[in-house]
Amino acid sequence: MDIVSTQQNKKMHPHKFTLWVAIGSIVMMFAGLTSAFIVKSNQTNWIAVELPKAFWFSTAAIVLSSLTLQMALRSFKQREMSKYRSMIGITLLLGIVFVLLQWFGFQELWSQQITFKGAGAGQFLYVIFGLHAIHVIGGVITLLIMFIKAFAGKVKLYSSIPVEMAAIYWHFVDLLWIYLLFFFLIIGG
Amino acid sequence: MSEVLNVQQGMAAGAVHHDGHHHHETFVSKYIFSQDHKTIAKQFLITGIIWAIIGGLFSVLFRLQLGYPEQSFPILETFFGNWAKGGQIQPEFYYALVTMHGTVLVFFVLTAGLSGTFANFLIPLQVGARDMASPFLNMLSYWFFFLASVIMLSSLFISTGPASGGWTIYPPLSALGEASSGSKLGMDFWLVSMAMFIVSSLLGGINYISTILNLRTKGMSMTRLPLTIWALFFTAVLGVLSFPVLLSGAILLLFDRNLGTSFFLSDIVVNGQILPNEGGSAILFQHLFWFLGHPEVYIILLPAMGMVSEILSVNSRKPIFGYMAMLGSLFAITILAFLVWAHHMFVTGLNPFLGSIFVLLTLLIAVPSAIKVFNWLTTLWRGNIRFTPATLFAIGFVSLFISGGLTGIFLGNSTIDIHLHDTMFVVAHFHIVMGVASMFGMFAGIYHWFPKMFGRYLNNTLGYLHFWVTIIGAYLIFWPMHYQGLAGIPRRYLDKRGWVSFNQFPELDKMITIVSIVVFAVQLMFVFNFIYSIFKGRKVTNKNPWGANTLEWTTPLRPGHGNWEGEIPEVHRWAYDYGKDGREFIPQVEEIGEGESKH
After folding, report:
1. For the domain B32-585, what is the CATH code?
2. A152 touches B: beta carbon within 8 Å
3. How many angstroms separate the CA atoms of B572 and B551, rounded?
4. Can you tell me the mean pLDDT for B467-476?
5. Looking at the domain assignment, is residue A1 inside a domain?
């Protein structure tokens, strides 16, 4: 094979690498937002926020979904397609549950009069958790496509690259969520 | 082996054609929604040129106001209606022009137009790849840019006008629609357009990085890469890590504008009314903005630096002097670019101790910059220089980079900056070092790679005229501004006649205005040359017209999608074997001969 430098390709698929760079970029966006949060939390008029319980349940949902997606990946690699289908289905459901729980969390906060008005952690929480949720929704759409593909006809190409990439992204949004949660618990509280 | 084959096929996904013929291409898939990196590069270039004309025209218009504040130009009213009532540029219009000139030139021309064009065109060709890592994302990158362009362009036609709070869109002015007409709908358009623009940049950037790291041809080790590729690589790294931070700032600003949050607003009184916002910090926005804003300077400069290195080496028929030092200084500049943003904020009440750290880090950039300048000059030294328009523009770049870089040492010192901040001195500094210099790098690149892009040459006579008028004009325009700034004349003022101390050099302002009109006219001549030469220019008959070593000159005269017919050539040496062992140049694809000396 002479198309590209083969040595490097054995290490990592270019699409996967692209995903890692994209993740670096997303990290920078949240780094910008959370550093803005730190700067503002040191100013006067700062109002801390207590996180609603819904966010704890959603944490459980997304951590669990990471596990099921990892199991889906393993079954795909072992060609156990029925197990793969059910695992990817469960992951998809847990993803949707996560987004819904985030929404309930927002509603609870809003009902406590923590709105866009005034100063404090609340405003940041809506923006930061909201942007995170958008990234999760992107993942849910990916999972949905993979779920449909898993049922549509026979799998011709057993390339695990797409599944692996979905898993990398999903674990990333999971870890990002855990970071954000602890960030708000430690600095926002 | 079979695993590798799989990867290859997986990667191919419609992009890698081994013979480039069996895929039927329609007009739309070939010229509009093309996934060929060369076509996408041309799309970026042409869109960038259109923006450059628009952005340049803006500057001519506000120069008219600055040079002739008392005079009326009825023709302006014909074109711009209420914006130029009685032939006089209205204040709102003036601020819109200044803001859009900055936005358009910084982002749409010198980021998308420059990186978008040359990263797309050169990366696959010079590293030896058939296309980008993801041709589809690459296509999306252009179309997000196009969308951003359409939104920004349509903001010019809103009745309250486009964004007019300066290209840095500092709140509270930008956050409050009631503050000025330019902070109304135009500002939302600006933010949405920039969000699209950032998506475009990120899609491009992640692609450039993975292509350079993953798709190099056999034998193309990282230290055999031409410096163009290294520069484009660091540019992409800067973009991927800094643009998201601006995006977060833009999102927070959108919330402040439309949803009543107070991220950047506190204790504001507009027309006697106290706004409810509290607890926000306008300075916070400046931090978020300049965390992108400063790396942005290098996003604009580095591609030009890379192309200049390549063009100077090829045309002085000598290896680039100090390849590793060049690479090291690119790396150092990239790191430092992230650590100096607060030097734009010395007058914000920044803690002086923190300020002194930023002074130190800022002045440190002089070291890698000086290394680069030294290496360009030593590359030219005793070379057998061919003074093509590309070479001249590359030398012009070095000249401008020195002149503008030196004034950076003034501004990087917080003590001097406090006096010079927001004066014409700053305008002079960044236009020379970043604006015009990068423009010169871009011109050099266009003259040099035009034959590969379009299979024809640009007209040389027009090229020489273009260069000489532009370089003399650029210095005539911006050199006097240093004196204006030192004399305390502020930037962004519509009419200086109200202040005795600001109205010291009315004749100088007239001169600058006249020269800028001449320079703008010559740029239009270049655009004519560009369009004319695409169709009627002298045809390229030699695959390697400049006698260059890099891989793009081993492709057919007009390469199809996939770049090389048959196999991709293997690389055996670095890109700078010029004038070695009595030979004028030795292409990268040539094997190392027996008894050949080391470079």
Report:
1. 1.20.210.10
2. no
3. 11
4. 98
5. no
